[in-house]
Amino acid sequence: MNEVNVSKRLAVGVFLSLGLVILIAAVFTIGGQHKAFVKSVRVHILFDDVQGLQPGNNVWLSGMKVGTVKSIDFYHNSPLFSALNRVSPRLSRSAM
Questions:
Q1: Mean pLDDT of 50-62
Q2: Exposed/middle/buried for 83, CB within 10 Å: 0-12, 13-18, 19+?
Q3: In whole angstroms, what is the distance from residue 44 CA to residue 69 CA?
Q4: How many CB atoms lie within 10 A of CB 47?
Q5: DSSP-derived 3-state class of residue 75
Q6: How far apart are CA 33 and CA 13, in angstroms?
Q7: C-alpha to C-alpha distance for 69 and 87, rounded to whole angstroms
Q8: Higher pLDDT, 56 or 39
Q9: pLDDT tens, 65-86?
């Protein structure tokens, strides 16, 4: 009976350990795709024409991807549009 109990405990331990490893891998994979664990800075940009711009589009600067468009809204009562972008904080202020 003692030998059966030890083998059950071992099987449960292996099963739980494997499940935990899969859960951690899934969190990091999904978080990496959405850049959830990367520091970013919010930047509001005003446009007079946003034709073709959609939330989720990439933001490019000098050929490098620096962020993504999060939302597009009307800017108060003007004909301008406000685009909220999340960009890398490593981007120097002189580049903007």
A1: 83
A2: buried
A3: 10
A4: 13
A5: coil
A6: 30
A7: 9
A8: 56
A9: 777 788 888 777 776 667 766 6
